[in-house]
Amino acid sequence: MARRLAAPVLAALVAACAGIGPGTVPHDRIDYGSAIGDSWKEQTLLNIVKLRYADMPIFLEVAQVIAGYSCRVRLPAASPWGISPQT
Predict the structure, then answer these.
(1) Backbone angles phi, psi at 33, to 5 degrees
(2) How far, in Å, CA of 61 to CA of 36, rounded?
(3) What is the tens place of the pLDDT at every residue in 41-61?
(4) Residues with Cβ within 8 Å of residue 50, at least 6 apart in sequence
(5) How far is CA 26 from the centre of its chain?
(6) What pLDDT is stored for residue 52 in this prediction?
(7) Residue 64: its pLDDT value, please?
(8) Which is more confident, 1 or 43?
(9) What is the pLDDT of residue 62?
(10) Measured between alpha carbons, how far is 21 from 85 in angstroms, rounded to an integer?
(11) Which of 64, 66, 83 minimizes the C-alpha distance to 75?
């Protein structure tokens, strides 16, 4: 039974990591750079409008947002293979 499940599990793990690694850096750098630039422009424009209407401008750095992100993997309490996650 475990051998039957090993191949699909291994294939799923390999496929999950396909979007990660050095090969994705050039493409992702352009996308992230563009998104950060657009965000900066929108924030600046919004703050100009806020100043016009005597409202307090707000500046939020990208690093502050990124620091708030976290990657979590949740596993069920008991898996079909009899393996329970460590807490």
Answers:
(1) -60, -40
(2) 10
(3) 999 999 999 999 999 998 888
(4) 56, 57, 58
(5) 17
(6) 94
(7) 74
(8) 43
(9) 78
(10) 26
(11) 83
